[in-house]
Amino acid sequence: MRRLAADLAAVRVDHTDADGTITVSVDGVGRLLDVRLTQGISRLSPSEFERVLVATAAAAVRRALGTRGQLIEEFNGQVNS
User: What share of the chain is helix, strand, coil (3-state, %, to 5)?
Assistant: First the structure.
């Protein structure tokens, strides 16, 4: 259990949009840790910026929760065998 808790606490996912303009970092529960922007955001309209930011954050959260799910499945597999 302690190892699972440590593994879950260590999950950190960085996701960058396709243009490399926005990078979002989240933890294993999808909590926002960091947002990094490049000068490329100056080419985006406010609505484009919002769309790219939200899509990038959502992708980061999906990946983090996927990693979390894999860790839990592995743990359950070990416990149940």
Answer: 60, 20, 20
CA distance 46 to 19: 16
Q: What angle do CA 63, 22, 15 make, to 5 degrees?
A: 15
38-19-61 Cα angle (round to 5): 85
How many angstroms separate the CA atoms of 27 and 11, rounded? 6
Model confidence pLDDT, tens digit, residues 20-53: 999 999 999 999 999 999 999 999 999 999 999 9
pTM value is: 0.89
Contact call for residues 13 and 63 (beta carbons, < 8 A): yes
